[in-house]
């Protein structure tokens, strides 16, 4: 048990600062999972309309993510995070000052636009301030902070949703501001030093003018994995789209409250099990972890396919969250260990683009299936996509070992 918690000792100060920044940010980050209910309950859109709005929003976010990735590789990543976070705060507060409707949605989308432009810099920053051998632990700690804040935030969001939605937006902006102040004060040096890069030859910076596409052509398993991220997001993102709609359909006016509670349970499971799973799976390479995680996603949705018993949703969320943890431990360090430091921002932005494409397409498909057929059809579709994605990752695992053999050396005990 001691080893489980001591694995987080000895990391850089910046890793701990980012951990606390994630906690604070996500204590107010409950607006995003409530977006579906805001659009359906507060504004009155149908499932299909919400899905197409997601596509439109995703269409705006895609170029923003690409621009953010390029800026992250060209300019100081800390400054990019601070500037974009402050803009995000302003529009969160503005969204909280208007009534639910088109204007609120516009302000919220603008806030999200700059938050997404900032994200590649944040992901690259995590890699910059950590050594390759401790990367998984740092991502695990950051993810733990994300969910520690979200566990409390989700319950607060569920309680504020009915009568105090405006206050929820303002709280979200305030917590983002606090986390930004932490980064301003405590993260001083984000330059990747040469000794760190020497620990993994695949991370050594190359000519920044070489296109990221050339990097991907040379390292094809990364390109395949970026495509897999699309399908993983297709399945994963339904926890904030199909799940709240399904719970609202079953539990009516209690749906938002119940969804907030199981979302908090998601955070609790992350906090309780992330250190344990990080320790137990420490000898497993990234892609086998991704296979396990992606397989658990559709399984969790199938658990609630034929039930209206509220407690079963906790079983579903437990299975889903374990899959989320294992997938994170594989996917978060996967890119950073195989991409030159000079291209981290851009290729991280491609991963985020994959998430957007998978999430938005998933919402359109699920919205169509729900409106034209049933929730059961939607859940079965998620199961099929999950199985196919897991099979492709299995084939990519063999390719990855041939392209990055040094990452698999001295690991004969790994799958």
Q: What's the rounded overall pLDDT mean? A: 79
- Specify the biggest β-sheet: none
Question: How large is the radius of gyration?
Answer: 20 Å
Please report the number of helical segments: 17
The beta-strand count equals 0
What does this protein look like?
The structure is a single chain. The chain has about 425 residues and is an all-alpha fold. The chain has helices at about 1-5, 15-25, 30-40, 45-75, 75-95, 100-130, 135-160, 165-185, 195-200, 210-220, 220-235, 240-250, 255-280, 285-305, 310-335, 345-370, 375-405. About 75% of the residues lie in helices and about 0% in strands. It is globular.
Topology (SSEs and partners):
Layout: H1 2-6, H2 13-27, H3 31-42, H4 47-74, H5 77-96, H6 102-128, H7 135-160, H8 165-186, H9 194-198, H10 212-218, H11 220-236, H12 242-251, H13 255-280, H14 286-303, H15 312-336, H16 344-372, H17 375-403
List keywords for this structure.
415 residues; mainly alpha
Summarize this, please?
By secondary structure, the chain is mainly alpha-helical.
């Amino acid at each position: 048990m001691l080893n489980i918690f001591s694995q987080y000792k000895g990391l850089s100060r910046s890793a701990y600062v980012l951990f606390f920044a994630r906690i604070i940010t996500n204590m107010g980050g409950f607006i995003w999972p409530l977006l579906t209910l805001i659009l359906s309950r507060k504004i009155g859109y149908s499932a299909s309309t919400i899905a197409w709005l997601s596509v439109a929003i995703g269409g705006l976010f895609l170029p923003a993510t690409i621009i953010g990735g390029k800026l992250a590789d060209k300019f100081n990543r800390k400054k990019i995070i601070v500037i974009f976070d402050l803009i995000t705060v302003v529009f969160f507060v503005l969204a909280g000052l208007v009534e639910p409707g088109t204007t609120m949605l516009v302000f919220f989308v603008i806030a999200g636009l700059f938050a997404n432009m900032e994200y590649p810099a944040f992901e690259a920053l995590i890699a910059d301030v950590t050594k390759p051998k401790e990367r998984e632990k740092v991502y695990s700690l950051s993810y733990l902070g994300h969910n520690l804040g979200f566990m409390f935030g989700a319950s607060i969001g569920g309680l504020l949703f009915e009568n105090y939605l405006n206050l929820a937006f303002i709280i979200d902006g305030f917590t983002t501001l606090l986390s930004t102040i932490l980064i301003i004060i405590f993260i001083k040096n984000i330059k990747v030093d040469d000794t760190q890069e020497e620990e993994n030859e695949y991370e050594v910076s190359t000519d920044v003018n070489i296109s990221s596409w050339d990097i991907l052509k040379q390292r094809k398993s990364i390109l395949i994995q970026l495509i897999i991220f699309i399908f993983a997001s297709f399945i994963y993102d339904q926890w904030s789209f199909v799940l709240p709609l399904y719970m609202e359909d079953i539990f009516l006016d209690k749906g938002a409250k119940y969804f907030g509670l199981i979302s908090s349970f998601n955070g609790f499971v992350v906090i309780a099990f992330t250190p344990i799973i990080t320790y137990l799976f420490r000898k497993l390479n990234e892609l086998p972890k991704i296979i396990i995680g992606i397989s658990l996603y559709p399984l969790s949705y199938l658990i609630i396919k034929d039930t209206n018993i509220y407690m079963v949703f906790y079983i579903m969320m437990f299975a889903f969250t374990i899959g989320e943890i294992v997938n994170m431990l594989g996917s978060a360090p996967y890119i950073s260990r195989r991409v030159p430091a000079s291209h981290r921002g851009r290729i991280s932005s491609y991963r985020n683009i994959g998430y957007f494409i998978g999430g938005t397409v998933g919402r359109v498909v699920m919205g169509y299936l729900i409106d034209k057929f049933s929730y059961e059809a939607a859940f079965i579709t998620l199961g099929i996509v999950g199985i196919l994605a897991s099979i492709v990752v299995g084939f990519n695992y063999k390719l990855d070992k041939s392209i990055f053999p040094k990452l698999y050396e001295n690991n004969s005990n790994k799958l």
